[in-house]
Structure formats: C-alpha cells, structure tokens
Amino acid sequence: MSGDVASLLKAAKRALDRQGHPTPALDARLLLQRATGLSHEAMIADPDRQIAAAAVARFHEYLDRRRRGEPVSRILGEREFYGRVFTVTAATLDPRPDTETLIEAALAFMPRDRACHIIDLGTGTGAIGITLLAERPLAHAVMTDISLAALAVAHRNAESHGVGGRASFIEGSWFAGVEGRFDLILSNPPYIPSAILPTLAAEVRDFDPGTALDGGPDGLEPYRRIAAEAVSSLAPAGRVIVEIGEGQAIDIEAIFNARGFVPESRWKDLAGHVRCLGFTQAKAR
User: Fold this and answer.
1) Is 73 contained in some domain?
2) Nearest to 269 by CA among 74, 11, 151, 96
3) Exposed, middle or buried, 22 (CB in 10 Å: 0-12/13-18/19+)?
C-alpha cells in the first residue's frame, strides 16, 4: 500500500488529534520523516510525492506506537536538547526542555577562558554534562549513573558531539567512586514521591525508567544524599545546582542549609515555576 505525503500526514494528524495528542501535526511529520528519510523541506516542496509501500508500512507501525502512548522521542530513539540531538533508550530519562533551565544556570558560572571541572550526577543520556562541555571547550566533566546501560548511552552521545575526550564516566550511586573536587556539582535527580508514580501520564510512567523518577517517599531522598556528599566534593567558591519539582524549593533549601550550604539562587522555567536551585558553602561566601 502506497500513498502521497499530504494524504498520509492528513490521516495521521486526524487519528492523533482524535486521541487528544497535543501536537498531532508535528508528531505525524516527524514520524513520516523517519519512515521515509525525507526532510521537512522535501515534504513541503512535493506534498504529492508518492511514498513506497515499505516506507508507508514503517510509518503506520510508528503511528500505532504513538497512538498507544509511546513518546515520539522513544520511537525515533533521539531527543533534541539545547540545539543538539541526543540518543535516548529505555535505560535513560527522556531529557525535557525544562532541564535547559539548569544549563542556562550552570553556564553563567562556567568561564570561557579557563578550565572548569564539573560533575553531572545521575547523568542518564549525558545531556547536561555533554551540553556544558560543548558550550565550554575548556571544561572537563565527570558523569555518574547507577545504570551501566545509561552510561553507555551517555558515552555514545559524548563521542557523537565531539566531547568524549573531556568526559569520564563512573558507574555508581551519586558520588560513589568519585575523587577530587568540582567547581560545579549538577544534578537533575529523581524527585517524584513514590506514591505519585502510578498517577503519572502514561508517556512518563510507562517509558521513563523508574529509577530516574522515584525520589523516595517524599521525593527528597536524592537531595539528602547529594547535600550530604557534596560537602567534601565541592571546590572552594564552587556551586551546587540542582533541578527540582514544583513546590519543593523550601524543603530542598532546608536540606542543603542543614549541611552547611547557603541558598544562593533560584531559576524559573518558562512556565514560571522554580526549576533549579543554586547553593554555595557558607564559608565560601
């Protein structure tokens, strides 16, 4: 069964729209591009172009997966983040646009003209650490994750973006196996309370790894670990910057304050929610 570009897109958009998908036209286009190998420009230039039966079959397979709730990024195996494309797999969290807030926060403290040593805790795809290395060519990063499979993805992403030579990867929980001190300690840790996980949207609940979502009974357990262990890993005048969930700022600031850190900054995401917190050690101020 064959079909032309315009007809396939129209039918797919209609099917996704009926199910309430928020971006049916975009989803349909991205899936058709992958199925056919055509660029967006090529599809615009020739909407009557006939698509071979094999490509149509692939497109319908992708469309069926999307209709069952699988995110487009999971179907494609990649996600754009801060202008770069990252491989994602079942072992990694799918990077969200909100996390770009953490990138902007970190870049403000990373000099362009000298070396900077950072650590990305619970790196997943490596999107945070790799993006910062790409933006600051003199920086070096350690990336940790409890999942060896996730670290393999991060390593591939680092190589594909040309920063592998300035990155090292350690399997372990938070600071386990890590030596030295860092100018920036960064993390987007799991922050969802365990009891909330079953209520999450299917796109998150069924496709992101649970270990990347589950923050313990109150969603704050990872922050307690990071605050406790960061004390001996932060360089003088260094900073800790963490991503947080909505409404968690006061509790997390208290956790870090109890470990001798001083809340320094809050950064909001595009929706106006506090998304990241920054801390220094009290003696560094």
Assistant:
1) no
2) 96
3) exposed
Indicate the pairing of strand 50-51 with strand 78-81: unpaired
64 within a domain of the structure (yes/no): yes
Task: Provide the residue count of the chain.
Answer: 285
Contacts of 29 (CB under 8 A, 6+ apart): 9, 40, 43
Q: Per residue in 113-165, pLDDT tens?
A: 999 999 999 999 999 999 999 999 999 999 999 999 999 999 999 999 999 99
Cα distances (angstroms) measured from residue 182 to each of 39, 75, 110, 234, 239 = 42, 36, 12, 5, 8
Is residue 164 assigned to a domain? Answer: yes
- Considering its fold, how many domains does the chain have in total? 2
* Calpha distance 160→122 (Å, rounded): 20
Distance CA 264, CA 285 (A): 10
